[in-house]
Each structure stands twice: as C-alpha cells, then as structure tokens.
Specification:
This protein is of the alpha/beta class. Helices cover about 40% and strands about 20% of the residues. The radius of gyration is 27 Å and the shape is elongated.
Amino acid sequence: MTYLAVSIPLKDQKQLRSALKSAKTGGAEAVELRLDFLQKPDAGTVRSLLARACDTGLPVIATCRDRSEGGAADWPLQTRLNLLIEALQAGANFIDCELASFKTSDTAEKILQALSSHPHARLILSAHSLAGPFENPAAIYDDIIAACPQAIPKIVYTANHINDCFTAFDLLKRAENPAIIFCMGAAGLITRILAKKFNSFLTFASLDDDQATAPGQITLAEIKQRFDWDRISPQTEVFGVIGDPVAHSLSPDLFNACFEKQNINALFLPFHVQGDRSRFNDFMDNVLKRPSLTFGGFSVTMPHKTAALDYAGRGGDFVENPAAAIGAANTLKIGYSGILSAYNTDCAGAIEALTELLAIQPHELHKMKVAILGAGGVARAITAGLAELGADITIYNRTFTKAQALAGEFHAKAAPLTDLPGIDAQIIINCTRLGMHPDVESSPVSADVFTADMTAFDTVYVPLNTKFLNDARAAGARTVCGAEMFIRQALAQFRIFVGQDPDPDTARKTVYDRLQNR
C-alpha cells in the first residue's frame, strides 16, 4: 500500500484540531506532524499533539526536519532528537530522521534504543537535496540501507526539469524494500502522483497551498479528486498533456472524468516540458526507453507540436496524413513495442465546432472569407483544414513574414495587422495566446474590428469568455468559444488513446464546470 499522507505544519493545538479533521474527512491515509514548525518545542506539547493525532486512527509520522534539509526552525540536533523520541514514546507510528543526523555523534544509538522499546514503530531515514538532483541517489539509497537495514529509505530532491524525475522512477523500480522516493518543485509533480503506481511507501499532500511544507506539494483535494488517487494501481496506464505552460490545461480533468465514468484503468497528468526541441526529445527518449512505466500517449500543446511530429517522423513510425500536411502533431500514441504514432485532431475539432455553430456542412465553408489571427501551430492546423475545404483565407500576424510563410504553404493570403480595421471577413479566428489566463484583458484585435454579420471564433478556452469573444458579442457577432474546439479535439484523442468512444456528456460537463468555477 502507498500511503497518502497529509503533512501538517504544526503551530498550536487549535490549528492541529482543524487540520486533523480536514485530513480525515478529506481521505488522507496518514498524517505527518512537522514538529520543526512548533513555536515551543517541549515534551509536553509533543505528547499532547501526538495524542490528538493518534485519536484519528490514522498512521502518524513525526518529523523534525533539519533546516539544511528544508526544516522550518534552526534547532540543535539534540533538541530535534529529543522531540522525535518523545513523539515515538507518545505513539507515533513512524519517526523521520535525516541520514546526516543519524550518522552524527550517538544519534543512531539513541534512536535505535528508543525503537527497540516500541516495536510497533518504524524509522524513516531521509536525505533531501533542495538545490537540485543528487549526483548519485542510488549511492545514497545504499548508504541508508547500510546505516540501518530495517529503516525505510526516503530520498527526495528538487527536480529542476521534468526530465530529472526519471531517476526517481528508476530508483523506485530498483528498491527491493519499501522506499519513499519523489521530487520536489513544480517539475516534480508527476513523481508525487505516480508514487502509488510505482509502489512508493508513501507520498505527501497538503491541506491547501498555504499549508504546503515543501515546494511542489500537491493538495489533498487535488490528488484525490482531480487525479483520482483511489483508482491508481501498478497496472494503471499513464497518459498526459505535454506543454509549456501546461498548468492551465483542462485535459487532465476531461480525460480523468471520462476514464472514471467508463471504468478505464488509466490516469491523465500534466507534463510540464520546458525548453527547446532537445528537451522535448530528451523527455520522449526517457519515456520510450522505460516501457515498464506503461505510458500510453500524450496530448501535445504549445510549443511542442512541431517537435512532436518531427520526433515521430525521425524514427520511421506512423504519421497520420493530416498531421503531416499540417506540419504539427497534437497527439502521440505509444503502441506495442514502443511504436509511436502521430496525429493532429486540432483541425477536425475546429472545423466541427465552427460548422455546428453555423449549422452548415463543412463543404459550405467553400469560398467563405476567413481571417486567421496568428501563424503558430493552431493557426497552421485550422488553415490546413479550411484550405482543404476551399475557404478564402487571409492570415494576419504580428510578424508579417511569418504570415506570408504560412499563407504560401496553403495558397492563402497574408496581410499585416494594420489592415484588420474594416476587413471584409465572414469569420474571424483568434489562433494566438492573447487573452489566455492570466492575461485576460488582452485581445489580438480592437473591438471596432467586429461587425454584426461576423462569426468570431477564439481558440483560447481559459477563460471561457475572453475579451475577444466579449467584444464580438457586444458588436452583435456570433461567437464560438475555444472550449468547443478543445472538447472535440480531446474526444478524438480519447478514441486514439484507448480505442473507445468517450462519453461526450461527461467531457462537456467537466470542462464547463471547471471553466465556470475559475
């Protein structure tokens, strides 16, 4: 079993009562009392706090972290040691001591002597690197086992990039006995959630962002609800969305809701892959050379869609014709023997959203005048689809040469942004990031561009109602929100990933509920 432990930064009795109640009702499977957050580190306080924690019936971990490894207070080793032993005597199921402290002076002797009188309890021997990955985490693991064979090794380091997470997965796979291994920081998020899949002894969550005791600690509600903790098992297949940024994406919400509804043993995560093409390639290399991770595929968003297509193409794997024509892939499927297939569902999703609003068939877009704002990956996908249908397309972009280059590929026209006022277009489509959260007051065009006989389509879906759409509605134009394109392209990805039709009602309700509550 992998315990989902809520870490509680202790301050006083009242705060603990409230935190314990929230942890219990929220579905925590253990609690960690961070004694280094106490204002008065005395034995009486520790006994009282442990009594309350033990009353929950949950396993209790007592930790008094050294400042050098992320502790809240700069207390002497002897003070921290006394508090851990006091917690042990008061009923703690686990005490967490740093390996460096354990090997100092007579600390090991005192802890092992205390444990001998409490056979119900176990020692967690930990090592933390706040600055970045350990140079040789496997050696630290071996050092912990050598120092105390019966201890539970805990190795935690900051991931400076998501690619740093794979070392943690490798070490967990190697561990023969229960171990706690994960990464701190935003880049280490996936290791906290996948701890259960890879049989880590436990992982940590916070009650809320303000009570996090380490960088990147996810909240209990999010890991239980958004990432469906209770359904994760070693057999769970992993999917996710690759992007930079990616925290805003609703793909995890949509896919996980559909997986649960249809009882599919799969999990969908955000994969924040920062950096250029080489970093993306490194990430994919890390995934594909570890088939035991059982990663099944990825949605791909900005800025990696072109890199995704090229990565699949260079290996001689399958590239769907629309993706090749567009020059970008938003979907990568990992098949048997690591065969990678690339697709693009953006184009079909956009055309479907647009034609349903207009109540027309796709072929009726022929010769309709369309203004496309932007010349990136989304603009490329929509331009390709509209060009195939014979639409009269003009591409507007801040960098005019990029508009010209894209237009030239699809026999469209290009124009500078200064030509937008007074344009003669039936449909205007925003394919830029302008207006995306948190820059919600931005729009790629001024409000006077819109007229009542236009249709305005924004591919941005966070927020649901962008300034672009609000300005269009104020002018009397019809509007298509980005959520409709997003939902449709995601439903197509779902079919590619698992070979089943998703439940569209679940997908749509999940997305709109999340957007309306933001």
